[in-house]
Structure formats: structure tokens, C-alpha cells
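Action item from last week, closing it out:
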Amino acid sequence: MLTITYNLLGTAPGPFFTGFVADRVGLLGALQVVPLVSLLAAAAFVSGKRR
């Protein structure tokens, strides 16, 4: 289940969202902003572990 979730929420849409943000703010801005999404993922994993 973890692998499926990781692929559906992490690796699969990652390039799409990076490209979307890059179209809006430029590639440098996208590469600075997109990694912040990993903090949200980490918070979701911590929340899931506690429940």
C-alpha cells in the first residue's frame, strides 16, 4: 500500500506539477518551490503513523 501511495502521490504527478509551476514562475522558481511539497508528504506520513 505504501508503494502504491508513493507512486500515485509522489513520483507519478511530480514531473507534471513541476512543469505546471515552471510554466507559471519559471524553472528556477519551480525548482525552489516544488521540494516544499515533500514537507507536506512528511507531515502526512507522521500523521498516519500516529493514527
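Closing note: The helical segments are 2-11, 14-25, 27-33, 37-50.
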